[in-house]
Protein: Alpha,alpha-trehalose-phosphate synthase
Organism: Ramlibacter pinisoli
Amino acid sequence: MSRLVVVSNRVADPRKTAAGGLAVALGEVLNNSGGLWFGWSGKLVDRPAGSPQPVRMHHAGQVTLATMDLTRVDYDAFYVGYSNGVLWPVFHYRLDLADFDAGYIEGYRRVNQLFARQLLPLLRPDDILWVQDYHLIPLAAELRALGCQQRIGYFLHIPLPPPLILAAIPGHDWLVKGLCAYDLVGFQSGADLEHFTDTIRSEAHAQDLGEGRWRVFNRTLQAGAFPIGIDVQEFNALTQGIEAVDMYERMRREYSRRKLLVGVDRLDYSKGLPQRMRAFRELLAKYPDTRNSATLIQIASPSREDVSAYTDILHELESLCGSINGNYGELEWMPVRYMHRTVARSRLPGLYRASRVALVTPLRDGMNLVAKEFIASQDPEDPGVLVLSRFAGAAEQLKEALLVNPYDTEATAAAIHVALQMPVEERRERHVAMLATIRRTDVHWWCDSFLHLLGQTEAHESGTPWL
Ligand code: ADP
Ligand code: F6P
């Protein structure tokens, strides 16, 4: 059987807590199948730009982690500058936050070349490679240029915008061509897939061969939508675990007279946290029955603090939470409990289960696994309600959630009010339907269906020279 080689910027020990959908999902997958996981160690060294750092190998259960450090200069241009200062905002439809500094792209290309050069000697002829996310779009092209013949798949964890928005990135055609060097490209939703096919049709004259196959740059490329899921079984086990149960019981005791709402996110402007707070403030203002009877626990884990847009959102959020508590709080009740940190994964299900409502209201999100984790950890007899942004990839699947437009403060507040009042029969009905969906399309389904299709793609054709 072929060995699976996963390549991503972020590599995490699958046995430890990670905040971020990619690390959590791949940890689950590799824990089961075994294989090699290659990427950045998370460490920086003060060496000249582009200087190759040694690859360190260590074993974590079934998985071999192969990681290398980055130089500070490479990190600044590749990770902070291009990946998170250009691709992340544009792919999340935030052209206003993009910083198209010409220098960054060089660093992005340099680190992708470095990844290719350092990975190549570790590969076996029958390996299957699976490259993850926006940091590594040109990696297949770089590997092909070095003679790599193995099948290479690519999955984009974040949204892909429509062609006109993508076109705002100077030199975006190079990114599009880079995507076409893979054998299979996967997206989170049907909408993202459509944006991709619109792009290759209009910009690279791709010819539709049917069944997700395209003729483009003189080779055949397969493209599909593979909505990522969670490991429902593992999450159930976690929910029954001692730490989750303890968390659940403590929360239930503390909030016996009040209903709990919960938000769990990385602190990212795409997650719509200020909009969520404004909707909560509107709820307290417009529906007095919620005062002193509802508490919102918002956990926001620190993320990408080197990028200025992230520090801006931190200050905005702190000020909103402070003003809500200042205006509505009472001696024995604070409406918002905000924590800027990561919660241990073993305790999260207890917090979800004790909550009557989850607020998952991103302005744009590839999928959003928190929505699925919330559903998986509910008590089926007395489940909570998911308030979900229509702009999360998860909304394509979880139609029984209360879908909201997070830009519409009043309507979101009204939906939260409905969620808080919803009778148990209706809560059960919605929960059963969503649970069936997340079970059917769990993380193993995601991985198996992607890798199955990748295994079936035609043996590598070189096509147009890539670089
Ligand atoms: P993203 O990949 O953009 O971070 P997702 O919702 O898809 O968003 O995935 C986030 C993952 O990280 C989930 O598994 C979630 O449980 C975890 N996570 C996010 N924020 C926190 C936090 N504050 N504490 C603990 N885990 C978190
Ligand atoms: O899901 C999107 C994503 O960028 C993942 O690639 C990553 O695991 C997560 O968000 C956290 O981001 P970062 O790796 O920049 O901390």
